[in-house]
Amino acid sequence: IEDTGCFPVQPLMHFVNLDDLCTGLLQEVVYLVSQGADPDEIGLMNIDEQLPVLEYPQPGLDIIKELTSPRLIKSHLPYRFLPSDLHNGNSKVIYMARNPKDLVVSYYQFHRSLRTMSYRGTFQEFCRRFMNDKLGYGSWFEHVQEFWEHHMDANVLFLKYEDMHKDLATMVEQLVRFLGVSYDKAQLESMVEHCHQLIDQCCNAEALPVGRGRVGLWKDIFTVSMNEKFDLVYKQKMGKCDLTFDFYL
């Protein structure tokens, strides 16, 4: 997607990643912080209508054009395929990256849960496809490095999923500054607590496999040989990048 023509008129907050669990958490935390909403309120709304996916046919671009400014839109697209309005710095981008070992496990579980076209192969086969860039949306390694190259841009906020669990208060403060909203100390503390509640609700939802939101999830399924192979591929594809991850907390 080069430019749909519907973005330059209104300010846009766009957030991107490849993990649907990260996407769900990020979209709800961003909505919570930007709107000053309550976690229970979010649970009652159709969040997909409030934060539509750019590349999905439903709800579609018509819904995006009808949203009031500032609009919140999510995407899994690589940086180079985002609308040019974002490249020009006229809109803000929030990107969340998750350590790739946990991500591939979560991605596998997501594919297994799909009602249609669900994946029925082994995790070993799925992980090989991930390492060989043979899954939907292409290479994770290219995707994350492409955004990391822009992490110092004024209109880009690059976040890590693990930091949400390690130091949520700091992440909320980053979001508050980046979004340009204002909270006093008591309101900020309350917002952090609301975000904690929201994350607990998302990570412990009955519909999710047990522990899917946990940092270090990969240790329960990776074999020693798989881990060694993954580390080798990771080093080959990320060797020149100074981006680092926490693989367990």
UniProtKB/TrEMBL annotation:
Name the UniProt record assigns to this protein: Sulfotransferase
InterPro entries in UniProt: P-loop_NTPase (IPR027417), Sulfotransferase_dom (IPR000863)
Domain of life: Eukaryota
Claim: ATP-binding is one of the keywords in the record: no
SUPFAM superfamilies (alphabetical): P-loop containing nucleoside triphosphate hydrolases (SSF52540)
Segments forming domain Sulfotransferase: 24-241
Entry EC no(s): 2.8.2.-
PANTHER family linked to this entry: SULFOTRANSFERASE SULT (PTHR11783)
Source organism of the structure: Meleagris gallopavo (Wild turkey)
Molecular function as annotated in GO: identical protein binding; sulfotransferase activity
